[in-house]
Structures are given as structure tokens and as C-alpha cells.
Amino acid sequence: MTDNSYIVIGRLGKPFGVQGFIKIYAETEKPKSMIHYQPWYIKSKKGWQEIKLHNIEHQRDNIFIGQIQGVETPEEAKIYSGKWIAVNRDQLPNLKKGEYYWSDLEGMTVINRHNVKLGIIDHLMETGSNDVLVVKQQNETGHSIKTRLLPFLKNDVVLNIDLKNKTMTVDWDENF
Fold first, then answer.
1. Are strands 167-170 and 109-112 parallel, antiparallel or unpaired?
2. What is the CA radius of gyration of the chain?
3. Apex CA 130: angle with CA 124 and CA 132, to 5°?
4. Which of 33, 38, 88, 110 could be a cystine partner for 118, CB 3.0 to 4.6 Å?
5. Which conformational region is residue 47 in: left (phi greater than 0), alpha (psi within -120 to 50 degrees), or beta?
6. What is the pLDDT of residues 41-67, one digit of tens each?
7. Are both 83 and 106 inside the same structural domain?
8. CATH for 125
9. Residue 65 belongs to a domain with what CATH number?
10. What is the pTM of this model?
11. 149 lies in a domain?
């Protein structure tokens, strides 16, 4: 499977307790749904590797605790701290037309209606009223020189999303 076959749904936090449990932070719209998307994969130097968790308990909001199979001490759990959790794209529900997983948008080139490149979508943020695109413009050497925060408002700011060509057209002035 390729890297884009995986969708990040959370990350592993710090060890919890003395029996090898670890904190789990959901990065999904409905945090409790992430425990149903099994198996989970974590990114390592070798690529995505399957992990099995058990004894998963919901703590609050988007925070869970669980135990990785074969991990029995805090020291062993710490090895996994900070790793992203992903699932295979096929494990997730199909989206309706016009809906997107954030991972599909990340890495897209953003251009405005005058065909001026504004940058690349680095990530998205959830706010109370709407999601926000974090668009980073880079110089020739690849260093970020400007960061723009664009509201993800379809038909107002976001005019077109072309998944095939990884481009998004927006109604946004290049000077902002």
C-alpha cells in the first residue's frame, strides 16, 4: 500500500500508569468512532506498521488510554510516544460528493482566481465556526516565507478542489 492509502486518525501520547498503558489522542470529528477503525498503523522508519491495542478506555473529549499488545512497562510505551496513528483508507466510511478527508487536502497547491500560487496546504485547523487552511508559501530553497490562514468556506473562499491534480482554487488576494 502507498502512503496515501492511510488516513491519520490520532496520535500516541505519553505513557499512563505503570502497566504500559499509553494516552491516545483522537484527531477525528467523532473521537469515539476511532476505536472502531481497527487495525491501527503507526509510522516508523520502515513505513506503516500494524499495532494492536486493547483495554482502550475513553477518558474525556478526544483522550483515551489503551495498551499496545506486547507493551507492559512505561519504558516500552514511551517508545511509541508521539507516533501518528493511521488506518487504511478502505476502513473509513465513503464520503458524499463535496466532502473531503483533511489528508486529501494537505499538500495541495493553492492558487487564487488570478492563477497566482499562494502556497501549499500544510494542515487544517478546526475552529468553532469553520475549518481553516494553513497555507505555507516557500522560497526557491524550500524555506517557508509566508503563512496564510484561509477559511475553508466552499463557494465563498474555496472555489474549486481538484483532487486529481492536487490543486485548490480560492478567492483570496495574494497580498493577504
1. parallel
2. 19
3. 25
4. 110
5. left
6. 998 888 889 999 989 999 999 999 999
7. no
8. 2.30.30.240
9. 2.40.30.60
10. 0.72
11. yes
DSSP, collapsed to helix, strand or coil, labels residue 125 as: strand
Q: How many CB atoms lie within 10 A of CB 17?
A: 11
Residue 9 carries which side chain, given as an amino acid letter?
A: I
CB 16 within 8 A of CB 1: no
Contact indicator for 119, 111 with CB cutoff of 8 Å? no
Termini Cα distance of the chain = 39
Residue in the block written with cell 510505551: 77
Q: Which helix (H) or strand (E) holds 63?
A: strand 63-68
Report the largest interatomic distance among the alpha carbons of the chain, rounded to a whole angstrom: 58
Residue 118: what are its φ and ψ, rounded to 5°?
Answer: -95, -20
DSSP 175: T
Tell me, what amino acid is at 165?
A: N
List, for residues 95-140, the tens digit of each pLDDT value. Answer: 888 888 888 899 999 999 999 999 999 999 888 789 999 999 988 8
The residue among 35, 31, 69 whose CA lies nearest residue 50 is 69
Distance (Å) of CA 120 to CA 28, 31, 147, 164: 22, 27, 10, 15
